Amino acid sequence: xxxxxxxxxxxxxxxxxxxxxxxxxxxxxxxxxxxxxxxxxxxxxxxxxxxxxxxxxxxxxxxxxxxxxxxxxxxxxxxxxxxxxxxxxxxxxxxxxxxxxxxxxxxxxxxxxxxxxxxxxxxxxxxxxxxxxxxxxxxxxxxxxxxxxxxxxxxxxxxxxxxxxxxxxxxxxxxxxxxxxxxxxxxxxxxxxxxxxxxxxxxxxxxxxxxxxxxxxxxxxxxxxxxxxxxxxxxxxxxxxxxxxxxxxxxxxxxxxxxxxxxxxxxxxxxxxxxxxxxxxxxxxxxxxxxxxxxxxxxxxxxxxxxxxxxxxxxxxxxxxxxxxxxxxxxxxxxxxxxxxxxxxxxxxxxxxxx
Amino acid sequence: xxxxxxxxxxxxxxxxxxxxxxxxxxxxxxxxxxxxxxxxxxxxxxxxxxxxxxxxxxxxxxxxxxxxxxxxxxxxxxxxxxxxxxxxxxxxxxxxxxxxxxxxxxxxxxxxxxxxxxxxxxxxxxxxxxxxxxxxxxxxxxxxxxxxxxxxxxxxxxxxxxxxxxxxxxxxxxxxxxxxxxxxxxxxxxxxxxxxxxxxxxxxxxxxxxxxxxxxxxxxxxxxxxxxxxxxxxxxxxxxxxxxxxxxxxxxxxxxxxxxxxxxxxxxxxxxxxxxxxxxxxxxxxxxxxxxxxxxxxxxxxxxxxxxxxxxxxxxxxxxxxxxxxxxxxxxxxxxxxxxxxxxxxxxxxxxxxx
Lengths: 355, 355
Description:
Chains A, B: It is an enzyme of class 2 (transferase). Chains A, B: Its EC number is 2.6.1.42. Chains A, B: Belongs to the class-IV pyridoxal-phosphate-dependent aminotransferase family. Chains A, B: Keywords: Amino-acid biosynthesis, Aminotransferase, Branched-chain amino acid biosynthesis, Pyridoxal phosphate, Transferase. Two copies of one chain form a homodimer. By secondary structure, chain A is of the alpha+beta class. The first copy, chain A, has two domains: 5-170, D-amino Acid Aminotransferase, Chain A, domain 1 (2-Layer Sandwich); 178-340, D-amino Acid Aminotransferase, subunit A, domain 2 (D-amino Acid Aminotransferase, Chain A, domain 2), CATH 3.20.10. Chain A is built from seven helices and 22 strands. In chain A, the strands form two sheets. In chain A, strands 11, 12, 13, 14, 15, 16, 17, 18, 19, 20 and 21 form an eleven-stranded mixed sheet that branches. In chain A, strands 1, 2, 3, 4, 6, 7, 8, 9, 10 and 22 form a ten-stranded mixed sheet that branches. The longest helix of chain A is centred in the middle third of the chain and has 16 residues, at 199-214. The first copy, chain A, is globular. Chain A starts with 9 loop residues before the first strand and ends with a strand. Chains A and B meet through β5, α1, β9, β10 and α4 of A and β5, α1, β9, β10 and α4 of B.
């Protein structure tokens, strides 16, 4: 979709880039931002002209709705640079689609493609030096929208701000990840906002995760809130279980995020001839499979980490260590997916989009 | 508790008050703010010195955690002025206690009493002209805390901002309130954050409430998310049902907010010799009571509205209109409670606290 008059973007560039102050070999995830940001406000029922301008703090009224009622959604995406210095996105249409589904669920306006996608491409062209070549180097993309209208009454805002900020990244997680299966705390309600990438879903996890950390576990595998018998997500990721040579993952629902990495891994696994069963996964099945040795792998899937292998889990105070696997499906799929993302392997799915 | 060195408050006053520009007879709830605000930041593991300064927008980084992960909590309170021009608070210790419970659940630091309570009293003394005499006139108080630390990684912030802003108010709701009993959407999960006054709980209600509005209902009565068979809250309020001459309300839980107005109404009703049954309330019981005529009243209870009578409810596409009641317990309790709050009746409970 081309830029029309309505979607033209004002650009104000920094006087001098801070890129030379950044140590690209030692990046903590999500802490360093590029020189510019995209900002676009929604007022009087319509989106204003987007602006790309120097990354900087902005003013908000103390009664801004985002502070009081949590109207805030986001997406996580990445940009990749190939050996020809071309920059690529991975399934950006999926992120736009999910962003707008989140917007609807949070009573926020949809962001049109010419702002979200064309705006993203425009800022990526300006920040192209921040996208580094090489497997593992990415530019993490954070589109988000917040309610900036004022007033301490619990009603949707009439004013919103859509922004895109960019953060150069290595990989998200490191070290061994042990998880605990949730027996009390929950991530989402039936009829709630679990399927939306809403800010409030994440802070709700911090306290239970801290309790898990205190017990020596890095993440929680979330279960359904009513019975705690079915497995739903791992931390902020979708989760896969390998029993013998079949991958199991829960179907998406109003409690489970429709992850782009999740759906890509399913398609990729199927192409590779791996059995994939998208069905409710019971805690009891996984415990039984761990006991009888048929549980080979568990891994999280998400944009930031891509694939995050889990080495063991705790349930009802019993720790189940997974066997060391010679032929890890998790690592195989991760390699194949990141090769597609970085344009090191043929993209037979048509997932990659050139900026 | 007196102010010690640590809790001293810096005060910067406005050059001239905007109070004369405010039409106190025609106030929309939560839209007008007083001249000053209290601000206090948490950094390096401790609370800094609070400041009372002119109400104004403040700067936040685009990657502030409140925008991305929704770490944000608040309280709702009111100040009242009696005929001697003294200013009173209503059970402020309960709000502080709940605020800090919310903080814990959202992995945020507790705010100490010398900042929350003493800071509130201090700003109220400065803004005393904004508290108007007369039943129905109040100064709505909004203490809140947001995560201001930066970084797009889903982990708790290390920096927070506690604020108090003040808004002169008449009553919150007006007109007839018809409600719809939730059959699909939900407010809270088991093991979730429903008992916390967390920002994300409110935006999660906006979309379902909009759908209810479109059908001609002002609010939703929320049910348990697993079975939708028990009644939990009404909109952003606790809810009471009067069957014959007994008041029923659900016990608080991790899904239901421990409302200060709710617990005060329970105590007040008991003092007045009214039967109060704090027990799970089934949808089926209320529908049956509506059918056989024993359901006399339904009302919401919360700080903003105090008591909000409901004229009828819809369930499974059937609308049940409540009878006109000559002797409304809702209105009787509202009058008695607001009289205590405004110091027009003796406070036998010791609930009111002089500023």
